[in-house]
Amino acid sequence: MQRYDKVMINDYSETEEGYLTVCVPITRPGVFPYQRSDGTIQMEAKLPEDIFSDRTIRSAKSKPVTDDHPNEPVNLKNYNRYAKGLSHTDARVEDLKLYVSMTITDEGLIQKIYDGKREISIGFMSDVVAESGAYNGQSYEFVQRNVEINHIAIVDQGRAGPEVAIRNDSDAWQIENEGGQTTMPKYKIDGKEFEVDSAVKSFLDAQEARLDAANTKVKGFDALQGRFDAQEVKLKQAEKNLEDAKKAQLSQDELDAKVQERVELVKGASTLLGDSYDFTGKTDREVKEAVIQKSSPDFKGDGKSDDYINAFYDATVERVKSDGFSSTGSNHMFSGDGSKKNKELEEKKQKRLNMKENK
Fold it and tell me: In 3-state terms, what secondary structure has residue 26?
């Protein structure tokens, strides 16, 4: 259905070109009576979530200004016939009203405004949905949904009467205020309703809207704080993992020491195990167990701690140094007690080597 809202032009300014620019509230939430085609009345609600929606606010931007309401919606094909100006792109919500600026560029309409034609009535399309409820203490039977503003008209004192598919909010205002009796809006405080002036009601509603917005921001902050805390936990865990990795990583000096220990182990073990022993892939413990088993064939290192193996290895090496223990090749071992006979054998061996070298 196409409908109309109406307000008064209270202030305007003239541009250097002679155009007129005005800024007015074009609609507000509330419950208003509408006259059906059969003369009966139905109460329809304009709810904040509808008229303050992005869709409705966007529809108020860059819309044609007309001299009275045309008998059809304004579009591309009839724009030049009806348009006498254009609304701006500053549509916004202030004090629970939808505001927009507009500029009138038609000389004839400008003169009518100077002569007193100063009411503004928006023409809009909406879905009228059967839905009962209450808004600000006023009951309604229907709700206007999906409000799309089509044009903004400069009118006199409203239309003669409602038509079948055309409603006029000017008539709704006249019915509401008929006989000079106006029901004051009510505001609920601690569960009790109080009648207040409409300006006070608008102010209180605006404050309540600001409070709701602040609460929404607080909830958003709490959610962000939760995500921040989770990221902080992850960061601390990452820092701990990095610190553990640093502790586990050998320094250059420690690495050099490890290499030197390995070299000394291989050098010492080679003398005892022989040249045929393959050190490739063997751990320090495996090498030490091999040395121990060379001296003590029945030795089993299974289940023994590293400290035990290291101590046994050191003891074996000390005993070898003391008793005399070496290897001259693969699977061959001799031992001696350091007697004169062994010394003589060693001297003869050295002489044979010297003779070969002298040749």
Answer: strand
For 4, residues 6+ apart whose C-beta sits below 8 A from its C-beta are: 69, 121, 122, 123, 124, 153, 159, 166, 167, 168, 169, 170
User: Tens digit of pLDDT for each residue in 90-100?
Assistant: 999 988 888 89
CA distance 87 to 21: 9
pTM given for the model: 0.44
The Cα 173–Cα 170 span in angstroms is 5
Query: Measured over all CA atoms, what is the biggest interatomic distance in the chain, rounded to whole angstroms?
Result: 146
Both tokens assigned to 77: 């094909």
CA 90 to chain centre: 29
Element spanning 320, H or E: helix 306-323
Calculate the CA dihedral of residues 125, 153, 101, 21 and round it to 10 degrees: 170
Task: For 101-159, give the secondary structure using H, E and C.
Answer: EEEECCHHHHHHHHCCCCEEEEEEEEEEEEEEEEECCEEEEEEEEEEEEEEEEEECCCC
Q: What is the pLDDT of residues 15-31, one digit of tens each?
A: 889 899 988 887 888 88
